Amino acid sequence: MEGLLKRVLLFSSLLITLLPLPAYTMASSSFMSPSTSSSKEGLPFPVMQRADDDDDRPQFVYDDEDGSLPSLIRSVRTKLNYVTPGTEEIHVRRDVTGCDSTYEGAKWDSVNVEIRNGRKTTTSWYLDEHGFELIPDGISPSPDDTIDFLDTQDVMDRYYPECERLLKELLHASGDDDKSKLASGGIACARAFDHNIRISTSSFGKELKGGGGSKAQVPLGMVHGDYTKMSGPRRLHDLSQPPKANDVWKQRLQNGQSLLDPMLVQEALEGKRRFALINVWRNIDPHHSVQQFPLACANAQTVPSDGLKTLYIHYKDRVGENYFCSHQPCHEWYYFPDMTFREALLIKQWDSHGALAKILSSDDTITTSASAIDATGPSTFAIHSAFLDPTTKSDAPPRKSIEVRCAVIWDKIE
């Protein structure tokens, strides 16, 4: 009883110092309510919220009695912003700065969820199996300490190669005793082709140096996946062609060059080689861990196909696709609190050999209730979202992060 009383008092004292709900604005637009559908006015982003106090469960649980260390948090309760099951097609227009118009057709559904501390589970998280993997000290200390992450050219010149090196080292063939490696032969190529900078303060919206008008974005509090069964292969194909207007990677090439070997890409799209699109997510603040709006990933084995909704992203020169998702009780969410500058989180966005990819390829309407957990094969992607962490203190430093998108093709011919 005494231990329980101490924990209740701890919760009460910490709740006093929790970070208030964000009230971001961009120009004259503000966040819209997550319970409403998109309109033609205001940004479409739903507000990140705390969980409802509709029962006796605490908003966070510590493993120890005094709860003095964030690393000892077992789980947090918060809200994630899904779309409703009745949501159909969703459309958005994205300009050269990376900013979006309203999300036409989106009906938001804010759901109370439990997000477990991935550092405290007995499960080891693997990219191939679960769709995400934390890499401790995954990026070498030098020259990262001096990279200007708000300078697009500096990021491409010095950080992109580090991400490519990391993936090449991790994703080579291995025996069954090392599940962190994807056993599909060696890597024919791993190339970084795009990135986003996200900052959770008034610095968002700041134009990035050398980014062709691109701006720092806010943490994205919507459950989503970055590619679909159509846009994943299409993006790979685009990388084998000369770059388009919105392609930042054109700055890495001479005129007329493509980022990927067209022959390798053709063989991958024909099913002769495995390919994947993988994000390298990282804290870019060398002095502070991530304390505001951390990133949560769903275990890919718990995500069925029938909740997926296609988002069509209209660029000036092409149409991309993401997946939004409606809530499913089977979803299991995890995060890694206090991510440091030396850690990297790999998040799979599409895998041509994924179990769910094969299901989706055979089901044009996505009406089946199949899940990767019911099939055999690797994970296909991990849906993810930033969230409002109820343990965050009011004086916590802002989140500053980068996500680098990479394309990987294996050298094994099927």
UniProtKB/TrEMBL annotation:
Record's keyword terms, sorted: Signal
Molecular function in Gene Ontology: oxidoreductase activity
Tree of life domain: Eukaryota
Transmembrane segments: none
Signal sequence region: 1-27
Keyword presence, Signal: yes
Family: Belongs to the asaB hydroxylase/desaturase family.
PANTHER family (UniProt xref): BLL6449 PROTEIN, OXIDOREDUCTASE AN1597
The protein's name: Uncharacterized protein
